[in-house]
Queue: 3 jobs
Job 1
Amino acid sequence: MSGIQGEVPLSIREEFEHLLSEAAKKCNSDNDNYKGKQTIELVILSGYKDEPVIDQDGKPLSRRTTPLHRAARDECKDLKVIPSLFKIYDNFDVNYTDELGLTHFHIACQHGCYNVVKKFLELGQVDPNLLVPETGDSPLHLALDNKREEVAELLLRRGGDPNLANAAGSTALHLICSQGLVDLAKILFELNHEMNQPVQVDARDKFGNTPLLLVVDDAHKNVAELLLRRSSNPNLANEEGLTPLHHICQRSRFIDGIVNIFFRVNDELNQQVHIDAPDKSGNTPLHLALRSNNRIAVELLLKRGANPNLIDAEGLTSLHLIYLMGYYVSPKILLEIWDESNQPLEIEARDKLGRTPLQSAVAGLQPEMVDVLLDRGADLSNFVFPAQSHFEECLVLLLTNEKYKLELLLKLSFGALAVIQQLEKRGYELDRSDVLTIMTLLYEALVLECLVAPIHEQDGESRRFHRWQTQLPCIRPQRWSSRRGAVFDDQTLWSSIDQLLTRYPTRHTAAHTHTHTHIMLQLKKGVENASDLGEELGRVLGTAATASTLLHTSTIEIKDLDECATKEEVTAALDALLGVPVSKRDPVKSLRKAYAGTQVAVVALPDDLAATALKLGHVRIGWVNCRIRAREEAARCYRCWSPGHVAARCKGPDRTELCYRCGQKGHQAKDCKGQPSCVLCRERGADDHRHATTSSSCPLAPEDHPGPPMMRILQLNLNHCEAAQDLLCDTISRLRIDVAILCEQYKNLAPPNTWLADADGQAAIWVHGGIPVQERPARVHPYFAWARIGGIFFFSVYAPPRLSEREFSALLANITEEACGRRPLVIAGDFNAWSTEWGCRKTRPRASILLDSLALLDAVLLSTGDVPTFNGRQGSSIVDLTFVCETLTPRVLSWTVSGLYTHSDHQAIVFEIGDDGASSRPSTRRSYGWNARTLDVDRFSAVVSGASVAPGTAEDMASSLMSVITGACDASMTKANPRRRREPVYWWTPEIADLRRSCLRARRLFQRSRGQHDEETPQRELRLSRRLLRVAIKTSKRRCWRQLCDEVNNDVWGKPYRIAMSRLGCPQAKQPSSPLLVRGAVAALFPRVPSGPALRLPRRAEEPIPAVTLEELKGAQSRIKERSAPGPDGIPNSELKIAVAARPDIFLRVYTTCLETGVFPSSWKRQRLVLLPKPGKPPDEPSSYRPLCMLDTAGKILERIICDRLEAFTERPGGLSERQYGFRKGRSTIDAIDDVISTAREAIAGKRWYRGTKKSTAPW
């Protein structure tokens, strides 16, 4: 279609309408989404614009259903469709309305089309409060309901009424509060204050909820404070009688901040809060807090005078419910808080069933609560033991919100024994039926929680239950059934077992009972006749018992599991891998979180099976080919924290109550605010103990040897997605990526980023890590970019699928032509080629063309495995490939498809390239020294003051002196970190990190659900998670931009000024990274001089060399600049000056010895070389660099002392000539020029000019 000009005929307009409507439907389909978007883009490129239909009166008709209405009604999945359609329907003089009353203006507000909404409002043809008849939603409702904050702010500023309610009774403030939009709430109140329009802060929806009732957790605490300060009534209740305080108290977590703000603001405003307000069920806030185990709310309510004697609809007081808090806070503490309020406690209060608090405490199995109530006067003479139904009710309430139910059940089992002991101790006589009531109930609950599984198939808590079960004789069955029809009583069973065990000489044989069906006998490790025992048990007892031996196991780790993998999936995969049913041994001990949303499984297998698994190396679990590695962990005691043994064999002190960080009692490391102090180093008398116990800084910790130097590369197709490119910035920072090879970037980045792109914006190379770009193409090419980085030529390629085979061959020909003669070589990108050679299901012609072309470059394919690099709605494939030349292959340390979430439909590929042998660093590499900011001056001075230097040769004394200063630096400063941690991008927040993890999980669940009946639900969740992540990134960027603008207004020379100047400044000069280039530059700049005989000057015996004086030492060290860079020893100049001031005597002895013996210590001759590139010079030439040599400061002081003595000799009369100007203090070349000029003037002024010429009589 060509460009359409002028008025469009009605028939053509109808054709376009039909075409766009069908395209909008396709955009909502997974299969035809691309076709629908392509159709809409084609119509836009044709130039078609909608024109309104004119009626007989010459007015445009607004009643019309357009494709925009259809796309909005169908809830189009693609968020770009609605904005694209507004490019066609851009006549904002007419607000088209469909038959249900939905207008274009409503659609623009709903989908966040800010510019469209703005144009509608500027033309004045729409009412900002126009309602949708079907739902009663105003434009402001639609914008807020879909989290379009910018549009909502625009509507508020243009007259949007925040007090309008929709069909559900919700106002704009209800929606703002439910989503916690505190900034928008502030704007709402400020605008309405300016317009003298009050906001109804206590408006009710159809359920009676006020905006304040919708704010119930810490995430929205700022909104709650704003509402309270705007006179919101804190005591209004909804239809269920719940007030805001009820809502807060019935939550079990995330209420610390909001409950404190709630009471603090109301206290400041002198606004009374109804602490004891009952809801329609009679529950006060205290009742709800107790039922929810909300300890913070319970304590705060009691301190504020809540009445504990009020009853609910069942007649229960707070004292009846306090047993629910028994395992979270001591009842004694709660009752002491009650006592402070001077309110009498009704100890014998009865509910509607006649139950007392003491009966509830016994039924809740809370021994401490029973003890407290009896101490406070509970009547035991009229006590009636609770019925079984009462125990069941309490047990259900205790387990309702409990995550670790089995652990709580075990606590309750011991609590039952303690309750029985308390009652018997106080004189209450229990019947056997009372005991059986408790034990039967607990036993049934425990068996149900353990799922009646064999002992060897249960987890650790289940096995712990069976160990503890023997301590509860009341619940141990008296008769045991092996199978139906065969019953053995306890005495017969154990008698048979004892007879068998006497024939097997084993020590410490343990017998465990399990439910009603199995008995397990565990023999110690090393017993070889367990099978014989099993056979004889089988003959005596049939199938009533089996024998097994404790096998020696090895622990392995399975890495790279996705976060959706479960223990059952890991076990099933091991069964298939090893061909042995390992599931019976419960091999998976734990699943712990690892980096980038992955998991690590710790598996215990018999030694032979573990060796087989390690030899195989990988196992396929779900969609991931996971690595199998041996688990190596140093033994460390968790009781005394010392290495080398475990807690079972510990003979050291018990440090379990100490803080790992500071070594003090009373808190944990996460709450520690003190300075780090290692307990182990302190006890050993070590000088340096300023680190956390068991940390990597501790001398007792295993040494961490750095790996070889390498370059880390990331490869990714961004799919022209803004959010994907934003997340890429954080990924590069977190993974310490040096080079990023990118395809289909969203936009090219400007300096100071080192970004090299192709001609069409389809491929790019992004350089990080300070690695210089040594070579780049003279002109850019379409579809590929290349550069030489760190001595390696990188090619980034994107071959669009629309290229024909001929065009694809031409593209590869251009690449091979550019790459010819350039080695080593990396060619990576999205080639859109399919072949079985790299894991695809079939081979297409493109793959053959690709392999034939790159064979000319001796390229080797790195892509291995069958992990897809592209995951689209229509399926998965492997199209992102990596090729390297043969000479580079041995240096590739790893290549993997990362599971990190990218927000693109492509996965990231990460691989590492190590340095070759020629680039190894010399052994005298620079030590990174110390961090001078952490200097402890007193400690440094104390160490230096207590040191001494023994007499000896100049070399030995200088070495001893530097050892003293180095030790003082170690004792008073922390080591400098050689690798600076890359900071995250400026807009990164914990919320965005959580949303990224949610997207990763949603994507994995969606991929696993393909082909299943419930595929649409994970797909919908993935789409929602992606949208929330995009919105969060954009919102964070806008917030940071506003903060930056505000800082400009507050401080002109602050952070914004520094950011602007950093963009204007020149890039930092970087040293050459190529080892060959460095060696060539050193050889050219520092040529070797042939060694000859040393020049020795005769010295007269009667001329002794005077000792170095204190004035000479102070004068020399005062000329050293404190902020100058140190030499190879890394000792800061400021610390060396402190050492000179603390112990000048040892410095004087060492320097005097050097002068007397005529020796300059060799350690002070070492230099640290820095090559600074000259601007505009070719980087491959040695003369393009300016060398700087850093010497140790102690040697500089000796040089200065020698120089001062030489200057004193040369500057005295009879020393240097008066006409010597170079290298002399107070003289320069300018003085020599002045001397020549003055001589010339004297000559011109003399008689020699008489009848002569200037040329012949010039003084030179």
Job 2
Amino acid sequence: FHEHPLHGCGGLQVASVRSKEVTLRWDSLGYSVTRCHRYNLTLQYRHRPAGAAEAEERQEAAYEARGAAPQHVLRDLTPFTNVSIKLILSNPEGRKESEELLVLTDEDVPGAVPPASIGGSSYEQHIRLSWAPPLQTYGRIRHYEVSFKALSSFDSDVDLSNQSGKVLKAANETAHTFDGLFPGSTYSFTIRAATAKGFGPPAVARFATKISAPVMPTYERQPPINQSDATVSVLLRPARGRGAPVSKYQVVVEEERPRRQTRGTAEILRCYPVPVHFMNSTQLNSHYYFSAELAVSHINKPTPFCVGEDHGDNSMSRAMAAGMLRRTKIAHECARALSGAATKKPEPDHEKQSDHTVKIAGAVAGVLLFIIIFLGLVLLMKKRKLAKKRKETLSSRQEMTLMVNNSQHTTMLSSETSSLVQNHLKQREAEREPPPYHPDPAQMHPAIRVADLLQHITQMKCAEGYGFKEEYESFLEGQSAPWDSAKKDENRMKNRYGNIIAYDHSRVRLQPQDGDKGSDYINASYVDVTRASPYICVCVRAGGRVAGPMQETVYDFWRMVWQENTAAIVMVTNLVEVGRVKCCKYWPDDSDIFGDVSVTLMETQLLSEYVVRTFAVEKRGAAEIREIRQFHFTGWPDHGVPLHATGLLGFVRRVKAKTPPAAGPTVVHCSAGAGRTGCFMVIDIMLDMAEREGVVDIYNCVRELRARRVNMVQTEEQYVFIHDAILEACLCGDTSVPANQLRSVCYDMNRLDPQTNSCPIKEEFRQTLNMVTPTLRVEDCSIALLPRNHDKNRCMDVLPPDRCLPFLITMDGESSNYINAALMDSYKQPSAFIVTQHPLPNTVKDFWRLVLDYHCTAIVMLNDVDPAQLCPQYWPENGVHRLGSLQVEFVSADLEEDVISRIFRIYNHTRPQDGYRMVQQFQFLGWPRYRDTPVSKRSFLKLLYLVDKWHDDGGDGRTLVHCLNGGGRSGVFCSVNIVCDMLRQQRSLDVFHAVKTLRNNKPNMVELLDQYKFCYEVALEYLSSA
């Protein structure tokens, strides 16, 4: 005989509290309370775990709670969090609860400051550092400790030993300015938050101060050593670099302008951005010209220099004009750390001037007046000729659709060429940065204007690409510099290929290890064509027949990554290609230790064309943890090229966006570290050059790369692909839009220009997207055009290319394995979509064969059943529909807003061992036949939500999308799906990129301008609803 418990447990109280534990105790329970010898005690508590948005309720059985002093310990609680606790007494007849007890857990050390929140504004001698509080404070933040230490400097003569320190900031201060720093130096900043329990883990960031202009010696009032009518000799003295060593000196001869400067006024050093030759100074109306360029070794001590004499091959010196009042000046370009100084020629003694100078002044004035009139007429005629030529150039697709516009959405240029140059000059004047890459202008292959790139590539492809063939064959093949270190016996096993190894002058030298004379070698080369984009090319050996060298090479790889402070690794090869091992797997699936370097995989982001892996890397003895990302492009065949450059261009931009500017060189590798590696680097460098200079110089960039590592860009096909990729990038521009700017960008893109009666989104769709959409040739669709397949195509103008066909596997007596369908990539998975036409009466069986053979678990139907258009109902409303060996069984149906959901069970009764497959069809009713776009954006998003939910709930497989012809409507669904995934993954979107990617496989995807606009509108609706 049992009864309900008399009352709940009494005396529930806290025995002790820690940061993550609470010990509870209560009064002993007797039979008079429990009313049963068999009873249970359960602790029910509610708290909010770390990182969770809402509180959770949990229960624990108190097994050790019987006896004279019952107690229980709650573990794994969140520090500094309120916990609501009840003790529940239950027997078979009922239950009783105790009074609720509220407990605040103790404080703990806080979490780390979010690394992504750390920002730094760099100046020449100070850095402004800012950060955000830890996401998990675990208490009340008392203060922050910020320490800094100098790591390196471009100037090797600078003593950085005293460049370190530490400051404490109050809890409400999340910024600090560090003053008194050295220019051109890299500093490591460590930030720790503290509660009453102590400091949390550190967050580390690196920033570098800007390089200052060199400090010039004083030349004021220093007379020249000697002078004549055509020459002047001055004493040049060495300058002192600030943040970087002086790289060279330039001697500039400048016309004296007494009206702008009076005697005794200090000379102001200026930058001379354009190197004007003496022969061109008059023609360009320049008041200065470059007389000479001298190496640093020539002026390591005070050295006489004569302006007007020939000083060798590196000199630009010419005789000075007789009688012209000039001054000599050593100019400096601030961003390049060139040194500068000035000397001033003494004022002439007017009393000693000869009378004949006054007498001929009138004659000289007359001659000058005639020359000025003549030049005015010539310039007027030339201006008219240039205006006519410019008008013809602009009429050619409006300068290739605003070439290399930094953002087609945010800035619409009125004059493409002129505004590009103006933007470039403004940026140079503001930032004083060097151009990313400047080849020698005297070379045989000059740089090409971006606006002329399309015409240049078209000409190069004439005569079966003879121009590209001739250029590529002019490159030096094979070894061009010594590589003695790589050929040493102890290093031979570290090279994957004997003919692609590191040159001595550019190889990466590892810090040597004790007792190992070859420990400083790795098959890796510095490739620093631009200061803004330093790279390391590396070959990761796969090990061959011996396991030892493989492990040793991988250890060397991570040693190099740590030593060079690398933050990004770019991998453009697969581990195995065509059955051959191309690269060893040098990263762990969880965590592993390579020598004294520990590597832990933190996150893997799988996308359709590449993978992003994030690692936490530690080195024994170092008090920091570095976050390193690996960007693995998976769609590049060895010795070949991707079919289209769209995916690779998005990959290049993603690498650049995610690589911290203050990090060390980016490590790039393929199999040998030559062909595909070189392609990636050239594309990245040239995109920077096109954006900042308005020109590209692919030929000389490849030549420079080959001077640093052998056979960079290995095939002519890769060389042509580089040109095509850069052309596509210049035509399309960077069309990505941050989520927080989408609304304003959409407003600007749809704003109508009253003069042209057009808007930017219309130009983007019709002039840019349609222009870069590939056109399918007859040979591209050879299988669809076979006579036996004609009756399987709804329209002979909408055919899938051979490379995208999903060939049917289940034959079932059929002679053809063709269906009018194409495989398409989603944002996260390759070939995640199959786009097809509505089945014809004679292809219904093929349609269900496609569903079964390609593991399609979702069918999206975007058109109506219409027998008049040969669009039959291809599914059973109930029972079983038999199609040869296939059986389609109706299971259930449901209606939700504008979507009818039907579930079918499909199986092949001739292969019972394969089992059955559950397939859900989503018929969208919100897109009438007479409309170009759906009626409601919200209902279209509901369709996407239902499809995603079906996949998440276990319907993991491909999505088959069809409309009438498998084009416009299907393209809208796939594009919006990609755009929504972009917003979820990286808080930005790129509608242009999404549609262009789909059109690479099927040009009729998203056929109409209104459908293209609808993709943007649905993205806005998605952000609003989210």
Job 3
Amino acid sequence: MELSTELFRRHLPSTMGIAASSSSTQSAADSRTPSHLSCCIRRSKDDTPMVGASVTGGWPLHVVATHKLDWDRVDPTLVALDVGRSDGSSSARSAVSYVLACGSGSTIRVYRLPRPTTSSCGEAPSLDVEPVNELMIGTNSSSIQLHSISFFGQPHASYICCYVGVEGTDRSVSSHIRILDCTSPESTTVKELMLTETTADGPAGLMVVTRSHIIAAEGSELKSWNKSRDCLLDGCFTPASVSALTADEEFVYVAYDDTAYSKIDDAEHPTSSIIVLHLGSMEVVARIAPHEELLGIIRVTCLLKPSCRWRDSGRGRSSSRAPAGPLFAAGDASELLRVFEGDAVKAAVIQMSIEDGEIKTTSMAPTADRVLSLNYGPFDNGPLISVGAGSVACSWSCGRTLRKLHRRLISDGSAGGVQTRLKMDPADHLMWSVSSDGLVQLWASEGGGLVVVVRSFSPDIMLTETGKYVDFGDIQVHEILKDAVEKNILPGTGVSPQEFWSYLEKLLAEFSDENAALLAHRDELQAAIDEWYRDGCKEDQEKFLKRIGYLVEPPSTKTTISTRNVDPEMSLLAGPQLVVPVDNARYALNAANARWGSLFDAAYGFDVVPGRPRPGGYDPSRGLAVLEFAFKQLDSILPLVGAKWSELASIWVDSRGQLVASTTKRKSTGLKSPSAFIGYRGNASKGDLLFVHNGLHILTKIHRNSPVGKQNSMGLADVVLEAALTAIMDCEDSVAAVDAEDKAKVYSNWAGLMRGNLETTFKKGGKSVTRRLNSDMNFRKAGGEGILTLTGRVVALVRNVGIHMKTDAVLYRGGEAFEGLVDALVTAAAGLLDLRQLGGNSRTGSLYIVKPKMHGPDEVAYACRVFDRVEEMLGLGPKTIKIGVMDEERRTSANLQSCIHVARERVVFINTGFLDRTGDEIHTCMHSQSPVAPKGAIKKAGWIQAYEKLNVIEGLSAGMGMRAQIGKGMWAEPDSMKAMLEQKLGHPLAGASTAWVPSPTAATLHALHYHMVDVSAIQKTISTDPTVVETLRHELLQPPFDGSVGSLPKSEVQRELDNNSQGILGYVVRWVDLGVGCSKVPDINNVGLMEDRATLRISSQHIANWLLHGIVTEAQVKETLTRMSAVVDNQNKGDPQYTAMKGTGTAFQAAMDLVFEGAKSPNGYTEEILTRARRAVKAEQNKQSRL
């Protein structure tokens, strides 16, 4: 984190400031000037780095060749390095070679390194390194200490300039510059300059070499030698000790020790100052500007003036007397900087600009690594590269603000204390690195015509088995995900890519450890419960669960939710809810458009009406039966006075916009509740009438000349119901998103929904069909005055994954990142598109995120804190993100009141989910002394009845009644609509304001239930008596044991095993082989069931439980799975994409693992095994496609 002016304002009184020691008084104008410590670390709102062809968001360099030098006879402490071109031309690229000089002690070795020309698809090739010479700087190696070396005499690297310390017999040390002919076998010294004498413990000398000058400094001495005039000049100033030095062809830049006064603590502080001298005269031409003292660092240790052309709004042009452009420095962090940045900060990198004789700091970036050297290039626009102890290199963007792009170890790191020096060759955009362990590496851009590399030092590229990754600080993002986010999501959000990836890095840094701790706590609690069961359950269960922290004390005050800005579909209205895999654009669009559904289509094609339509077009007899069904619904929902809808001869509006109707017997009639009619459009022969009942709209479509309209006296062609009010776009259980490619599709589709432009094209009936989001509908209001607009789409929620999930689409700390954190930021960023009024989802400015698989209030509170941080990062108002709490884990059910309490300002949704909840129930009691009952009996057990009732009561107790959704689970048989129509009425009768349905058709039919039942009235009749609640909570904790299972007939046990095994295989094979996370899977009786990971969890946990308790054997399970694989193969034989298992293969093995590893899988979750298998299949498919 960079320090900012705002941060200082929070810590300091308004009267405090920082002043230089040379200026103890200030004018009023001066006092308004920001102090250096705040200025140099202040952050511009425009953090965009310089744009260049070679650098985009990082530094695309790669190792293209390596060599290991022989250091047998050389001190392995590398202190000097230079690389020069062996000719002066850059035109004949393939002919270019380089000369490398490495020095240590009193020895310099010179090597020739030809430019590699061959390509490789494996490891970086070895450099063809040719030793040229070994130079001895002096005759007595023990008295010589080499400080630095540089080639001198470019464009031909023929001379080496050495800065050495020579120890005399009296222990005094003199500093010398020696110019050696690197081609001479006798180590011929061409020129020697004596600079100064000092003590043996004096500071090491500094030297910088340009084409025409050698500049050296030691202590407070600074001298310049002009090659053409062969003269030595002293600097015209007397600073304290020089700490850093650099130069270009016109100027020398000097950092020296200084002090500065700070009003923060009313004390002097050691720091550095910087001056610029003209090389010809050694006169000072620029200084640190007033109030720009470098109080953030103790001492400048590195100074760099880029020699490449600087691309920054035309700056960088300098005259012979006026230096200009950028200047970089680095040094150890001061105590003042650590006060605000923490003790982890070791150093800081500073970016400065030189204008009109003044050096001004533009940005300072703290870093946890000490900086030993600064480098710039090898491109015109950088990057800036710092190298620290242990060969840790960081690249930095150099726009208006310094920003760290990448941090990486650039040597092999096999030996401790390895140091690395870098040398740039901007002519060919190459970089050399030489480490003190002898490793020489050549780095180049990928598009530079050199070899394709495997090892990378790039913030752009890191190659792994799963593809290329882009580095952003401590995270690496797969290039596919990066492209999806930057191209499909961020445009229109107001968030730049640089900002977004910085936010993700911070989010992972702030919450990953807590996420891991919560998962560890789950394991600890389960281990304690396992031990309690093994020990015979001697302690009372509820006392035990409270003692270990599984059960928490309910809130001391009554919980009342205070969620604000909730759309009426989530609060005031009751109606169906769809859940669809958002990776499938067609399904997502179908769900989004399911706000309105044709009752005729729902009844015509399904078993709601007896019989089936004849093939070959419209079946008139079927149509009459559907009309009868539709008229019956209208009579129930919108009754007429003294008539039935089927008796109408006409119904339309009069000249005043009022509804008028008459029967075939010419009897006038109308609605028993006239206010139910609210609008119309069209005309009497072809138009629509709009009604409302229980808050839901009904559209009667009149079209007398249509096939259906001709079959009835009033010309009714269809009844369109307002069906699904909301839809959960699922990133979790119904998708098979295992890598960056899958996640990119998930996120892009969600962004398309939020932007309002998602569309997909597919084949239907041999024709190409393009599906888009429905538009809104306009009606003339009843009475004829004004326009009524109704939305054409549902309100969409997005379900993120649980906290136990990880993804390789983003890497953090070298491993897979927690996927839930990635989901939170990406889906919220996509939600900005709607909040910017681009998509039309929420009309109240809210974003709805459903969080699954949460265990207890601690995890709910964690999710809320994550949302707090995401809102802060994205600039959203507090509590913009609303949370849906899935009540599908035992610890959440047992503490639901507390879960709602910690989310009371965000919660808009709770629901029950039988399958996941049963899976967790079985896993929790896995090590009990009795097995669980058969699945059919579990559904009737007391705990699940208590679970369903308690969810509604706890929600109503917290004030969620018609202020937030209280939901029920999925109807799993999408073809059995008659049964659904008969049974799912129980959900609104139980007080639930929504319930899940598997299809738009099911949503249309389920909408009838909300016309039959006034949910608001039902909720008012439900008792929230604390005594009832306590009884239900006690029943909730009674596991579904059945000690009699062991005495069941073998045939019944086998039938249960067959059923579970067939269901597991039928789902797993499509998940693993085809990447289908939710589909209609035929059960053992060939009844199609909607399956997702929740159904898989319960089936695999059930077999694992019976296996552990000896109800079934391992051999029996394996035989059953093998036999059932043939059944599943036969059920899918008509699918051209299906590959038969035949009792073997990756998918079959995954099914085996789910069962045999089920007892030890954390909480019985299936994702880890499924993901591993799916990745293996995709890897093999990718391999085959490449072949």
